[in-house]
Amino acid sequence: MFFSLWLQLGVIIVIGLMSWLWKDAGFAQALVFGGLVAVVNSGMLVIRWRLGVKVYHCNGHRHLKSFHRSVLERFFVVCVLLALGFGLLASPHIVLLGFVVGQLIWALAMMLANRLF
């Protein structure tokens, strides 16, 4: 999972640099911010996964409760960060585009990691 996270971060940075050369700094900043929100979301997922590997429990109710908490934590963090990006940056639709691109990169990186390792 760490390979996928680093790959996602690297691709977001490369896309940000390419968009800065192609468009302008405001466009690149909004795109990278949205991508970094996706990286934070993925990072929280990786942290929760790593914690679940170390702290193993067989109680179904407890497992479901920790899963539900993880989903809510990631949801609220992503909502707050996207709201900040929408409010502070000039183009909210580019922030959302960066987030969607970041999530797609995460899915592709996970498929690539499963195929390689």
Describe the 3D structure.
The chain is an all-alpha fold and 117 residues long. Helix content is 90%, strand content 0%. Helix 1 packs antiparallel against helix 2, helix 1 packs across helix 4 and helix 2 packs antiparallel against helix 3. The longest helix is centred in the middle third of the chain and has 30 residues. The protein is flat and about 50 Å long. The protein starts with a helix and ends with a helix. The relative contact order is 0.21. The mean pLDDT is 92.
Helices, by number, come to: 4
Instruction: Summarize model confidence as the mean pLDDT.
Output: 92
Write the element-wise H/E pattern from the N-terminal end onward.
HHHH
Let me know the number of strands: 0
The share of residues in helices is: over 70%
Summarize this entry quickly.
This protein has 117 residues and is an all-alpha fold.
Relevant terms:
flat; 90% helix; 117 residues
Helices and strands in order:
Blueprint: H1 2-22, H2 25-54, H3 60-88, H4 92-116
Helix pairs in contact: 1-2, 1-4, 2-3, 2-4, 3-4
